[in-house]
Specification:
This protein has 334 residues and is an alpha+beta fold. It has 2 domains: 200 residues, Rossmann fold, CATH 3.40.50; 94 residues, Methionyl-tRNA Fmet Formyltransferase, Chain A, domain 2, CATH 3.10.25.10. Helix content is 23%, strand content 26%. The protein has 8 helices and 17 strands. The strands form 4 sheets. It has a 7-stranded mixed β-sheet. Strands 11, 12, 13, 14, 15 and 16 form a 6-stranded antiparallel β-sheet that branches. β6, α4 and β7 form a beta-alpha-beta unit. The chain starts with 6 loop residues before the first strand and ends in a 10-residue tail after the last strand.
Length: 334
Amino acid sequence: MPVGRRYRLILLGSDEIALPVFKAVLAMPLVEVIGVYTQPDRPAGRGQEIRPNAIALWAKEVGLKLIQPEKLSSSDVQTLMGLDVDLGVVMAYGQILTEEFLATSRLGFINFHGSLLPALRGATPVEGALALNLKVTGISLQQVVRKLDAGPIHASAELSVVPLEGRVALRERLGLLAADLAKASLPKILAGESRPVAQDESKVTYTRRLNRQDSAIDFNVSANEIQGRVLALEGWPGSTFEWNGLVIKVGAVVAESSDAPAAPGTVLRADREGLQVACATRVCRFTALQRPGGKMLPVGDFLGGCPITVGAVIKSVSMPPLVGPRPFPKVTQS
């Protein structure tokens, strides 16, 4: 590159988990961010008002050029080819990058992925780690290739999962970890000094996109699996069970070590200490619940307005796995 010219980068992301990385990149003295790609403004909230995402808001705030195509096209390729881009930086963008698009940058594109690859490729690595009750996860910095999250790894960083940590807190910590990884690794990549290492394809696992049906709970699994599932689905779609025709939303659950003395789904206890339910293995204790139209309440307050009978059996609904050894088939989102 000519002496005195800064490295010209584009950023691609659509989720707030990418904000720490993008802020770190923008602050690098040898970097010029010439554009930010993100998803178009979408309906959000109860009123479904059209709103920009966190990345779009930030780009506007700091005065960066913002590009929001519904789908990347040949015109985007032509535009980038004329901008002399050195590197593309991706995190949680939400669109597939074509070979033509990847070829528009001198050093290609790098991606910050929320797992220790090759484990948990795909759209929901944070949720996958929690659903599996992993004690350690992390961030991988990979060179982007056409195959999903299969590119060679420039660097990675581990992060211990805090007991009973939910998706929101873990995503926030992973975002900050990714920013630290960017500061340490990006200068080497820009200087052409990083030599990425191929992934071990024999250890690959995949995650899938979530849908509303994932909220249902199946007591015919272990209490630990239910706890991990609730933590993974925190926020949306959440976790629910049906009681007397009402869909009850779970705010918090703890897997207990005591053996289950009854069939899965049987209510063992219902008081201020929690709603204790038998599982296939061990017992889970719900400590915060919400009925339709109400607020999330401590279980004692909840039971005061919506009693649940000890000895009753709560219906189980099958929970499709969030992680598998092969890519999941594409399904219509609901």
